[in-house]
Every structure is written in structure tokens, then in C-alpha cells.
Amino acid sequence: MIKKFLIERISWILLILLLLLLAMIIAYLDPSLAISSMMYYVFLSLVITAVFVTVRFFKETPFYKELDSRDASTDLSTFPEPNSPFETSIYEQVTSSLEQLEKEAASNKVLLEQEKDELMSWIHEVKTPLTAMKLIIDRTEDPRLKSELMYEWLRIHYLLDQQLHQKRIPFIENDLFIEKVELESLIHNEIHTLRSWCLKKKIGFDIELSDTHVLSDAKWLSFILRQLLTNAVKYSGEGSDITIQSSEQSGQTVLTLADHGRGINPRDLPRIFEKGFTSTANHDQHATGMGLYLVKKAAAPLDINIAVQSNPGAGTTMTLTFPKENEFLNIQGV
Q: From which residue to which does any coiled coil extend (predicted)?
């Protein structure tokens, strides 16, 4: 703060020093003026200037320090009172700007809430014709046409589901219900939804669950599994298998989902959970880059650790490590 204070007033300080130097030059050139007397005058002037600058520093900086420590959410009534006309001008400009920002923030918040509510309503409305479309597809007799229609229906269904959960993510803490969840039923439900896609690609599942129950939220855990299984099926080669296993390690349930697809480029691995990231090697026009990002966001409040191992051309293994039940209950305050 001292450095900034002096830099801001450097022009005034230089002017004073220049005037004192000018006084010394005049005393040197004018024999009628005693050099010693002028040096005494210059010394006193420097001392007075130093004292003046010091006093002004301690008088002016508290006001600006207080302003600097505040943020836009601070109540304007708690701002320091100005001590001079200049500070009053600064105070009025700052408070005016903050009031305008507060109004704009409140207005934007209302608009965002309205947009979110409208989008959520739209998603729920779209689900009705999607359900009707599913019934129509089920009655289709042509196996090839049925398979193609079901694949496109799944794409729309999962995109809507992803969008719905994306809007719910910021409020996930209010939406959790922690209970004993049966892994096998969740996994089989998600695989059943993907059945037509798996049949089309001739993909099978090898499921071996030695630890069948976890403490979690069924709805959000289903969403996490749905995204991971969708990716596994999407990037698996035709006729390959997806292996799903669970085990207990050090009192924690570990669930692994391994596919034998194209794998992930090593340079992409650190970024796969970033928002909007797709791939630097394989450019998929249909990829949104949101699936794994939402998985990571949903796993955090559930205290689920997600690790990834992948080799290009050999497949990808996703490992979900669930928290110890007692520790998780203490964290959640259950």
C-alpha cells in the first residue's frame, strides 16, 4: 500500500524536490544568499514534506483499504464514511456502481431461474411424446427398422436426460437421499434400456458383483452408471464385451466398468472430465463433452472417487470407489 501511495503521488513529490533543487541553484548563483541558510531551509522543507506525506498516508489509506477489502455482496451501509470531498466523490462512484451491479445481478438471477424452469418444463413435456414414440417403435414389425428407430430414440432420450441432470447439478445437495442401494438392480435396469443398441452392435456384458450393496443416492448413482455405460457401449467395437465387477477393498466397495473399445489418447486422459472436452484425436460430431463432466460433478457430493485407465485400441476401465459407510454417514450428518 505504501508503494502504491507513493507512486500515485510521485509527480507531487518530484515537483517539491525540483523546487528545492531550484532554490539551491539560485543560492549558488546569487552571492547575496547564504548557501548554509538555504541548505537549512531545504532540510527543514524535506522533513516537513516527509511528515506531511506520512500523516496523509495514515489518514487516507484506511478508506481505500476498507473499499479494497469489500466485495459486491457487501452491504453498502457498512462502507467506511469518506473524510474529504475527494473521498466523497470516490465513495459515491463506488456505491453507485455497486448498486447498479446488485440490480443487474438480481435481474439476471431471476431471468436464469425463469429460463431453468422453462427448460425443465419443456424437457418433461418432451418426455410424453417420447414415451408414445417408444410404444410405436415397440409395435414396429420390421426388425431392422425397429433397431434403427430405437437407436435414434435412445440418443434423444439420453440427451434430454443429460440436459435435465445438468440443470439439477447445482442443487444436487438438496436432492440427495442416502440409502442402501442394490448395485445389481441399478446396473441391470440401465443395461435393459441400452438393450436394442447393444443388440445392434452385438455387445455383451460380463457381470460379476461380489459386493452388491452401497450407501448412496439411487437416482444420481443411476445417472452416473448410465453415462459410463453409454460411453462404454458407444466406443466399444462390434461384437465385444463389457465387463462389470465389484469387490471390497479396505472396507470400501470398488466397482469397475471395462470395455474393449478404441480407448483414450494418453494426452486426453487428464482432461476427459473437463466441461465441453471431447477429444484431440477422434473428433466425434455428436459428442457434447458433457457426460463425464456431469459424472464427476455428481460423484463429488456422493464422495465417489472415479479413476480411469485406458490404452488406445485396448479399451477403457472406469473404477468407482465408494466411501466407507461410517465415514460417509459422518460426512452427510446422517
A: none
